[in-house]
Design goal:
It contains ten helices and 14 strands. The longest helix has 12 residues. Helix 2 runs parallel beside helix 10 and helix 3 runs antiparallel to helix 5. It has a six-stranded mixed sheet with strand order 8-7-6-9-11-10, sandwiched between helices. The protein is of the alpha/beta class.
């Protein structure tokens, strides 16, 4: 019997246009209505969760979803496992932060290069420079509620009393990508997960799987009682912590090879299919 469903956001719950369909949202509500604990498990930071799942923000009232309906979830795994947050009690249950010295070293090496810089700090998404911040708001729309534009990320991190959950370095050319590879070849306490246009940099102690296992232990839930759904390489660790492993139809090949079930793509409501066929059957 599944008691907890950990579900990725981008490429999984969200379509290629970063929207959450009515059918997928309904499936998650149906699962929650059956007593299954829904846990958004994402590379996004807390305040940039999909707006239709606005219960994930700490500014909302105890898990009330954006459309005024009953509670959908209480726990969120954000920043690729950097935090596990109980939004009802407004406290972190698990943290794996990027060491400040490491973050500053990486940011120093980015100076003078044609790279975009962003970071997750204290649940917010900080972006260096107005052009990149504007692009972020265009791409994510209403999901970009936690975006904050800063002038100099190095200076912000250096002076802040908050720890860094994650850095993101954007590159728009193969040459810039090589520069990021060179920068990331040195830190021993950080790792990087790449997309086509940016690298997510986080502590080696952080992963979706480790965060999920920590949450399950606190809730007294066994591995075989956990299901997860994902599409990317950063979801592999989540597979290791789950009893039922579901890959999206658009998932990377490595994830599909490890999956117990491959559902439809994110543009064909694959999460809803998986919930009704494998979890609520």
């Amino acid at each position: 019997m599944i008691k907890l469903l950990a579900v990725d956001m981008d490429g999984t719950c969200l379509t290629s246009r970063s929207t959450l369909t009515d059918r997928t949202l309904r499936a998650l509500r149906d699962a929650a209505g059956k007593g299954i604990i829904i846990v958004p498990t994402t590379g996004r930071n807390m305040l940039c969760l999909p707006h239709r799942l606005a219960a994930g923000t700490l500014n909302k009232d105890k898990g009330r979803d954006a459309e005024g309906n009953r509670d959908l979830f209480r726990y969120v795994i954000s920043s690729n496992g950097g935090r596990v947050t109980d939004i009802a009690d407004k406290k972190d249950l698990f943290q794996a932060m990027l060491p400040k010295e490491t973050a500053l070293s990486i940011l120093e090496k980015c100076r003078g290069k044609r790279l975009g810089i962003a970071s997750h700090m204290k649940y917010r998404y900080l972006i260096q420079g107005k052009p990149l911040a504007f692009m972020g708001r265009v791409v994510y729309g209403r999901d970009a509620g936690g975006v904050c534009c800063v002038r100099d990320m190095y200076d912000i991190v250096c002076k802040s009393r908050y720890e860094v959950e994650e850095l993101q370095i954007y590159f728009l050319s193969s040459a810039a990508r090589k520069q990021v590879d060179e920068i990331m070849s040195e830190p021993e306490d950080a790792c990087a997960a790449y997309t086509g246009i940016y690298a997510e940099i986080f502590s080696k102690e952080a992963s979706k799987g480790r965060a999920l296992a920590a949450l399950a232990e606190k809730l007294g839930i066994e591995k075989q009682e956990i299901a997860c759904i994902g599409d990317g390489e950063n979801d592999l660790s989540m597979f290791e912590a789950s009893g039922l492993k579901i890959a999206m139809g658009n998932a990377v090949s490595g994830l599909k090879e490890q999956a117990d079930y491959i559902t439809a793509t994110n543009n064909r409501d694959g999460v809803a299919e998986a919930v009704y066929k494998k979890i609520l059957r």
